[in-house]
Amino acid sequence: MGGDECVIVVREFDPRKDLASVEEVEKRCEVGPSGKLSLFTDLLGDPICRVRHSPAFLMLVAELSSTKEIVGMIRGCIKTVTCGKKHSRNSRTNDPMEPLPVYTKVAYILGLRVSPSHRRLGIGLTLVRRMEDWFVQNGTEYSYLATENDNQASVNLFTDKCGYSKFRTPSILVNPVFAHRLPVSNRVTLIKLSPSDAESLYRRRFSTTEFFPRDIDSVLNNSLSLGTFLAVPRGCCYTQRSWPGSDKFLSAPPESWAVLSVWNCKDVFKLEVRGASRVRKTLAKTTRIVDKLLPFLRLPSIPEVFRPFGLHFLYGLGGEGPFAARLVNALCAHAHNLAKEGGCSVVATEVASGEPLKVGVPYWKRLSCDEDLWCIKRLGEDYSDGSVGDWTKSPPGVSIFVDPREF
């Protein structure tokens, strides 16, 4: 690649000798636009923190052969997810036409970085191709990634040079955590489910949702998962004390119900907003002071986001019935209060753009992203099930399951 000084060696990340160099590249890549707010990520000294909880993961670095300087990196992980559904007449349930999930092995790319001083040399493309080689060697059928819609350089790299196509545009919804607690409607009963009950409910009701992870049990039993919460109308026969288990609940559910789980991102990474003016910081601080002094007024306040802060991620959001969105709203209020107790500044979730329960999720538009762009690429010719065909060409479903291990 160019002269001898630009020969690039791609190898696996070695935490014993690469940590400082990788952190330096991260810093050089996170230079925000002058005079504009920018979001910075602190990986807390663990460059693979956002993939290490996946079933299989890898981090590669690109270094100059002459100086051994690291000038780029990429992370990837592999899992099995739902890519569609089929009907089986051999189903053991009472409904022989009940849809069953079709699974496929997918890989997720994230954290591609190239040092600003070494861009336009093909390093990013080389890193992507080497990562894809690892995906193929491990039997992966599809590779996908998420990027900002307006990050034209990233979009061009993956769609023009790497063969990816635009696939889904879910919404990232972010809500601040105020100094006051949010009230949970007294018309709603909240029930905390055990991991095994949560797994049963998710598998029976959401396993045909796109990107549903087949190892959902690993997600729910992870130490970062803070719990799964079910909301039902108050007055129905289900309470925490009388909870019969998910199987009995689903055999006779109330007219409406909703569920979500909470993931603790605070122990994985922290974020920081930089580039704010002194006036903006003062205004934000004033709202917090007033909110703390007069919590009964329940005034919206801007949390401390101009220093490193943590967040909780809400995943597995779903429900059924005409009042499900209201129940989701109650769950989000409960999640807000959990985040407040946990010292977090924001709660976030990601849902399909057409998700009907989206109306029940409170969020600040200024902090959120209406269209996060997911791109996908077919890596193999053989498919896990012919009933799905080429997943890259399939229309979007109503819902999508966002794995918290990759947020």
TrEMBL record:
Signal peptide: none annotated. It comes from the Eukaryota. Residues 8-183 form the N-acetyltransferase domain. InterPro entries: Acyl_CoA_acyltransferase (IPR016181), GNAT_dom (IPR000182), Plant_NAT (IPR052810). This is N-acetyltransferase domain-containing protein.
